[in-house]
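TASK: fixed-backbone design
INPUT:
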């Protein structure tokens, strides 16, 4: 099985580059640390990341009337709902549909597309930096021409709620090897 990430030394180098870019970005208020993610092994993956990045990032979400706990509480009401592509109801939903539905119930409009959802909030490059309420994004979870293929909401304690194609809406550990290997970044919409 092809590993998406290099060894620990490689991860440390990536983290160092990301931290440097975050420091530079905080001075210029521009950018996205994702441009420097070197763990994406193939040229086509790097090209996809660059194409994704040219679409714009850091769209703001008005979270004045909602909290991370409120979003998670709403999401947990959907635990057990089966998966179906394009779904947004108690009958069935997909991963981006879960986010669309949860945020809509809290008065926030989100696009029904994981790749577009990844443009909202401020980038959280490392899994170890995630906080409750952060959105989490993954690549290569199924075959598609999209770069970001899966989304979820961090529930804290290194777990996230999302819609699994086989188990429906569930809470999963970010340390699960399959998900850990495919995590690309998170976004923070709650300060």
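OUTPUT:
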């Amino acid at each position: 099985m092809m590993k998406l990430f290099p060894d620990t030394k490689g991860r440390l180098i990536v983290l160092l580059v990301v931290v440097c870019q975050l420091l530079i970005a905080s001075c210029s208020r521009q950018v996205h640390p994702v441009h420097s993610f070197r763990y994406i092994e193939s040229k086509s993956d790097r090209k996809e990341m660059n194409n994704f990045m040219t679409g714009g990032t850091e769209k703001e979400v008005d979270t004045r009337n909602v909290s991370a706990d409120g979003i998670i509480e709403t999401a947990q009401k959907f635990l057990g709902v089966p998966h179906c592509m394009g779904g947004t109801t108690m009958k069935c939903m997909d991963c981006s549909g879960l986010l669309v539905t949860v945020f809509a119930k809290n008065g926030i409009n989100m696009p029904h597309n994981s790749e577009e959802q990844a443009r909202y909030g401020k980038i959280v490059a490392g899994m170890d930096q995630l906080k409750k309420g952060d959105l989490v994004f993954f690549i290569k979870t199924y075959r598609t021409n999209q770069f970001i293929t899966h989304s979820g909401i961090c529930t804290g304690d290194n777990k996230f709620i999302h819609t699994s194609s086989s188990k429906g809406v569930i809470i999963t550990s970010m340390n699960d090897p399959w998900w850990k290997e495919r995590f690309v970044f998170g976004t923070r919409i709650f300060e």
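COMMENT: Helices lie at 8-28, 43-53, 68-76, 95-104, 114-117, 177-182.
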